[in-house]
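This part of the workshop introduces the protein records we will be handling. Getting from the letters to the tokens is the skill we practise here. The record below serves as our worked example for the rest of this section.

…
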Amino acid sequence: MSTAIKRLPGVEDEQGFTPRPEFKKKSIRSYVIRAGRMTPAQRNAFERNWATYGLSLFDGPVDLVAEFGRSAPLVVEVGFGMGDSLLAQAQAEPDKDFIGIEVHPPGVGRLLNNAADAGVTNLRVFMADANDVLADCIPANSACRFQLYFPDPWHKKKHQKRRIVQPAFVEAVRHILLPGGVFHLATDWEHYADHMMEAMSLAPGFGNQAGEYLFAEKPDFRPNTKFERRGEKLGHGVWDLLFTKK
């Protein structure tokens, strides 16, 4: 495990330390920071556990062997929400190392707290803009799997430019994947599923595991998420896409 000093992402204010995501200045982001009150446990988890699990955008490329203390297959996930499914995967696949990227402090705090309670050692976290992390921090040809589960669909046409699945993002994912690595996407919104399929089918350097313009069966390694259960209650389907880097 890396022994480098890890600074907390946030600011000191009248409440003490307030966690805030890291990002480089840009005009369009794929997310908004939604209001969400942090519990004392989530807030305290940053101070107690960030040194163990936290990674900073501003520290540049991650030395994976130094950080995890071993050489192992790497899985990267963007938008892990409250972190329950990512933690479950890290526990279920101890032979792999996991890096999660999320911008919402309550979810990051919850994951930090629960990972520490579970004694998980194969998990690290960025609280930062995913596009910045992919550009500056994840080494090229390093990940065996990249996961994007139930991203914000940005329904309104005027907002669809904010959708994270865009050609530049797909290329950034391709850059960090090993040859033969898998980009796994999932959504419970049919229109966004079609958007994902079109973007991935047109992207150079990827092949659809299920066949041209076909969605995949849910793989065993993806746990059911809160968004998936919500979608089922609303009568939504769930669409999985599995694309392999050529």
